[in-house]
UniProtKB/TrEMBL annotation:
Pfam short name (any one): Aminotran_1_2
Subunit structure: Homodimer.
Keyword Transferase set for record: yes
Keyword Ligase: no
GO molecular function: pyridoxal phosphate binding; transaminase activity
Domain of life: Bacteria
Cofactor entry: pyridoxal 5'-phosphate
Lineage, uppermost ranks: Bacteria, Bacillati, Bacillota, Bacilli, Lactobacillales
Annotated InterPro entries: Aminotransferase_I/II_large (IPR004839), Class-I_PLP-dep_aminotransf (IPR050859), PyrdxlP-dep_Trfase (IPR015424), PyrdxlP-dep_Trfase_major (IPR015421), PyrdxlP-dep_Trfase_small (IPR015422)
Family the entry assigns: Belongs to the class-I pyridoxal-phosphate-dependent aminotransferase family.
Name the UniProt record assigns to this protein: Aminotransferase class I/II-fold pyridoxal phosphate-dependent enzyme
Keywords linked to the UniProt accession: Aminotransferase, Pyridoxal phosphate, Transferase
CDD domains attached to this UniProt entry: AAT_like (cd00609)
Length: 399
């Protein structure tokens, strides 16, 4: 049977990232590949208490169909978190989504027609690339350095693509690089969005997990012209399994998002929304975020220390001040997949750089995750990975 798929469905049967994550899930393999939070910190007992209370007190509402814009109690919780992030708004500006992933998907559906330019950081979150590609986007990659997206390159991209529909950015502890955009660049980005009249999709799943440096204002908090759509999520500060995210935008846009969400899934899981709101009422999320931050910092320090001890000379890495990832650049290596293959031979998994680019890739790059590896395993994994890098570098040097 030959299926007559729409253009949105990926061509061919290869699922490179799925294959990587599958092998990374093998218990023999030490995985620095995934992007999973540390499961030992999930507040299981407290969520159980919250769930019991919700079912006792508002069981029928929690099990019933609900509002497409989201349960009011949860939108109040989100409003308070936005205050902490310097975004002063009201609940009309908020829609609950089924994770940030749905916010990205609905944004693609709302703004992108076949052939529209979408401006992304080079590299960027790979599943956002998949979404925008499914809507027919043409990618325009903008260089980054350790201070985030370069504004001279962004302005050039805007001049070259006057009809660009969207700038997608993860300004803080970016996935995959762990880099953070400076305050100066944030201000410039908001200014450019207004000047060239292009929408910005600001994706901020990691911003609260900071162990070093100063908190920086979100783009949304500086936006006075409604060019910024902001997305947040419970996934990295609470639980990804609950699938709770949010979009913050002008109420006119929120209305459209809500209509698009109705066609996608009617509304986000009511029980999950009530349980989350109840958990936030009874517990201080900031204490929980502190525990997450302390653990990830410890793991990141161990990883960086081992990298600096074992990786061959010339290999560079980012130095995140928070979040879950760091980015490695190996000189002289043309094919990032070779790094993955050599690491896997030694039972270590990383994500090679290629899928994080909309178009041309930066060769010899890969992403490492530290949030999900126990402290006593990190050094051994990095040491084996160092041997793999050395092997690939020496083969590349003899070519
Ligand atoms: C940058 C970025 N955006 C969005 C998501 C999706 O998160 P959610 O679990 O909220 O759908 C992720 C997940 O890893 C991410 O890294």
């Amino acid at each position: 049977m030959t299926y007559k798929f729409s253009k949105r469905v990926p061509q061919g049967d290869t699922d490179a990232v799925g294959d990587i994550l599958k092998v990374a899930g093998d218990p023999k393999v030490m995985s620095f590949a995934g992007g999973l939070p540390a499961p030992e910190l999930f507040p299981v007992a407290k969520v159980k208490q919250a769930a019991d209370k919700v079912l006792d007190e508002k069981g029928p509402a929690a099990l019933q169909y609900g509002s497409s814009q989201g349960v009011p109690e949860l939108r109040d919780v989100i409003l308070k978190r936005l205050e902490v992030e310097g975004i002063h708004t009201d609940t009309d500006h908020i829609m609950v989504a089924t994770g940030s992933q749905q916010s990205i998907d609905l944004t693609g559906k709302m703004f992108i027609d076949e052939g529209d330019a979408v401006i992304v950081e080079d590299p960027t979150y790979l599943t956002a690339i998949d979404v925008f590609r499914s809507y027919g986007a043409k990618f325009v990659g903008v260089d980054m350095d350790e201070d985030g997206m370069r504004m001279d390159s962004l302005e050039q991209a805007l001049k070259d693509n006057p009809n660009a529909k969207l700038i997608y950015t993860v300004p803080t502890f970016q996935n995959p690089t762990g880099r953070t955009m400076t305050l100066e660049r944030r201000k410039k980005l908001v200014e450019l969005a207004d000047k060239y009249d292009v929408m910005v999709l600001e994706d901020n799943p990691y911003g609260a997990i900071r162990w070093e440096g100063e908190n920086l204002p979100s783009l949304k908090s500086m936006d006075t012209t409604n060019h910024v759509i902001y997305m947040g999520t419970m996934s990295k500060i609470f639980s990804p399994g609950l699938r709770l995210g949010w979009v913050v935008a002008d109420p006119k846009l929120i209305k459209k998002y809500t209509m698009m969400k109705q066609s996608a899934d009617l509304h986000t899981d009511s029980l999950a929304q009530y349980v989350c709101a109840e958990y936030f009422k009874e517990n201080d999320i900031n204490d929980h975020i502190k525990a997450i931050t302390a653990l990830y910092h410890k793991r990141e320090q161990l990883m960086v220390k081992a990298i600096d001890k074992y990786f061959p000379k010339g290999v560079k890495h980012s130095n995140p001040e928070g979040g879950m990832f760091l980015w490695v650049m190996v000189p002289g290596v043309e094919d990032s997949q070779k790094l993955f293959d050599a690491a896997l031979k030694r039972n270590v998994a990383i994500v090679p750089g290629d899928p994080f680019f909309g178009n041309a890739t930066i060769p010899g790059t890969f992403r490492m995750n530290y949030s999900n590896t126990p402290e006593d395993k990190i050094e051994d994994g990095v040491k084996r990975l160092a041997e793999a890098i050395e092997e690939v570098m020496s083969v590349s040097a003899t070519k």
